[in-house]
Design goal:
The protein is an alpha/beta fold. About 45% of the residues lie in helices and about 15% in strands. A 7-stranded parallel sheet has the order 3-2-4-1-5-6-7, sandwiched between helices. The protein starts with a strand and ends with a helix.
Length: about 240
């Protein structure tokens, strides 16, 4: 089993939304996925309560001492990927989660404040000697600020290969609309740009970890099929302009 941990010092960076989107993309790619929630704010648990589908399951684990044991049990149960959503800051649970990670993803919005706030998390990841990558999240579609943010993160990581994940995740309404409807963005607006970006990010992660899964033709019929939610995707979600 591989474990991906989303962590950053600053709240509001979109860790939970990314965790949900990546979990759905991984399931669609053939992985058996479990979401682990260590943030007592309960965003993932609340999302699951609004959801009509069983997968991906969310396991709330708020005691730092329980994380390693739970991950070991999930591996024994046949789970192939665990995605851990952590609280803002670096507490005991986040430190333990990072220590058990195969890859740490550090989301950051393209602002000086957000990039500066990654320093504490990056120091913790380096202390644990874990592979990591920044995810530029909630970005504008284009602009100098985005380019500067990517360059700054790359320079700050001392030229480590693949330090900034691709593609960047643009701020669009369909991410929040999907979250409110108990869906992943690829279920809410499967043909939208946001869904394409999340699927692209998952492909990047698979390549980074070397864990691509292949679905046999007879497995395709076993995948849950999402129906349209009561809240319809916005025009922005479906726009390819």
């Amino acid at each position: 089993m591989h474990t991906i941990v989303l962590a950053t010092q600053k709240g509001g960076s979109g860790k939970s939304t990314l965790a949900i989107g990546l979990a759905r993309a991984a399931i669609d790619a053939g992985h058996t996925v479990r979401l682990i929630e260590t943030d007592q704010q309960g965003t993932l648990s609340n999302w699951q309560a609004r959801r009509s589908y069983a997968e991906p399951r969310v396991d709330p684990i708020y005691a730092a001492g329980d994380i390693a044991d739970r991950l070991a049990r999930l591996a024994e149960e046949g789970v192939t990927l665990a995605i851990v959503d952590t609280a803002g800051g670096v507490g005991a649970s986040t430190s333990v989660a990072i220590g058990n990670a195969d890859l740490c993803l550090i989301p950051a919005r393209p602002s000086v404040v957000d990039i500066e706030a990654t320093a504490v998390t990056l120091a913790e990841v380096r202390r644990a000697a874990k592979p990591f990558a920044f995810v530029l999240n909630q970005t504008p579609i284009r602009g100098q600020r985005l380019t500067n943010a990517a360059t700054t993160l790359g320079d700050g990581a001392l030229d480590i290969p693949d330090v900034v994940a691709q593609p960047f995740i643009v701020m669009r309404n369909d991410h929040q609309d999907a979250l409110s409807a108990g869906l992943a963005v690829s279920e809410f607006a499967p043909s939208g740009k946001s869904a394409d970006e999340i699927r692209g990010l998952w492909s990047w992660i698979e390549a980074r970890l070397g864990i691509a899964a292949t679905l046999a033709p007879d497995q395709l019929s076993d995948l849950p099929v999402a129906t349209m939610p009561a809240v319809q995707p916005s025009a922005e979600a479906l726009s390819f302009a």
